[in-house]
Amino acid sequence: MDLQNTLRQRIKMHQKTILAVAAAADEEVISAVSRAVSEGYVSAILIGDEPKIRSISQEHGFKLESMTILHEPDAVMACEKAVRMVSSHQADLLMKGLVDTSILLKAVLNKEWGLRTDHLLSHATVFTVPAIDRLFLMSDGAMNIAPDVLAKQQIIENVVPVAHALGIICPKVAVLCAVEKVNPKMQATLDAAELNALQKAGKILGCEVDGPIAFDGAVSIEAAHHKGMTSPNAGKADILIMPNIEAGNILFKAVTYFASGEVASIINGAAVPIVLTSRSDSDEAKFNSILLAILMAQTQGGPHGSDLRP
Ligand code: COD
Question: Which protein residue has the closest C-alpha to ligand 1 atom 2?
Fold first, then answer.
């Protein structure tokens, strides 16, 4: 399964999106953005240390002619400027460059000029691995540190539309735990049972929720059979809901480093989708993430329009 092709096929090319990149002075970031510009997906505003942006680009042959560069060497200020460009509608999408995730997210959450909505913001990753021929989504590996059950409900509500945008009509959501039975000493199992019940009661829409369920039984039909699991969705999960940020972050990085997976990551629930990858992610992962953010912007109302915002 080719993640990048899937994303390319789902994007409408006639809409040009303006991407504001916070702290852009990084080889992988500029590589991904210049590719998205040259392929006609976006026009870009690079906010960061201009001399560094220019020397990286010269060294690696990235073309900057059709991009705007705003010199701002301070990372906190670069994040503020990038977020303000989006909230003032001068740009359609935001992308994290070479800066701590928490610095960018604090700017995004700013009450006066940030990109907050009345919904929780959460991070979602779409990934493929060579061993299994289907798309997976997982959330949250980068924003919500220790979500309670209400936050997990909103995390599901944020990630289900991403699955829909990728053509998964009724995604199977696995709320991951270490076991398949409720154990009051394991909060994740209590949360999973509650989320399962909420979906069955019609309080979570557009998906089917399973849990508590462990990783093997969620992703492998053989493992599910072996463990005697009876749920018709066992082994067939599309979306993996993580118990906490550590589990999510480790799975996300294991996909890349142990399984040679392809990934794309964004923040959902904000006024616009935000391209948010790890600093160590490849230019390919960053390019895929730009495509995913464009797809979600189009799904939510299209770029260049106030209907992107609540
Ligand atoms: N969605 C919506 N609003 C939020 C969210 C959210 N996910 N998180 C916090 N808020 C709001 C709160 O309601 C409050 O109004 C305000 O923001 C501040 O809340 P705090 O004090 O809990 O949040 P902060 O500013 O201390 O931290 C928010 C972060 C997102 C920065 C924090 O949760 C964080 O550091 N997350 C992990 C980021 C990270 O390091 N990732 C690494 C992996 S790449």
Answer: 120
- Listed in sequence order, the residues at least 6 apart from 199 whose beta carbon sits closer than 8 Å to its beta carbon are 173, 207, 208, 209
> Which residue ranges have their beta carbon within 6 Å of ligand 1?
101-102, 105-106, 109, 120-121, 142-145, 249, 278
Instruction: Tell me how far apart the alpha carbons of residues 210 and 220 are, in angstroms, rounded to a whole number.
Output: 14
| Alpha carbon of 244 to ligand 1 centroid (Å) | 14
Mention every residue, 6+ apart, whose C-beta is less than 8 A from residue 120.
144, 151, 154, 155, 158, 269
pLDDT in tens, the chain (310 residues): 899 999 999 998 767 799 999 999 999 999 999 999 999 999 999 999 999 999 999 999 999 988 999 999 999 999 999 999 999 999 999 999 999 999 999 999 999 999 999 999 999 999 999 999 999 999 999 999 999 999 999 999 999 999 999 999 999 999 999 999 999 999 999 999 999 999 999 999 999 999 999 999 999 999 999 999 988 899 999 999 999 999 999 999 999 999 999 999 999 999 999 999 998 899 999 999 999 999 999 998 644 433 333 3
Q: Report how far ligand 1's centroid is from the alpha carbon of 153 (Å).
A: 17
Taking CA atoms only, the protein residue closest to ligand 1 atom 34 is 102
Pocket test for ligand 1, best of 76, 104, 105 (most atoms within 8 A of CB): 105
Q: Which of 102, 125, 155 is the best mutation target for the ligand 1 pocket, counting ligand atoms within 8 Å of the beta carbon and taking the most?
A: 102
Q: Provide the token pair at 153.
A: 């409900």
Q: What pTM was estimated for this model as a whole?
A: 0.96
CB atoms under 10 Å from CB of 132, counted, come to: 13
> What backbone torsions phi and psi does residue 16 show, to the nearest 5 degrees?
-90, 135
* Residues composing the chain: 310
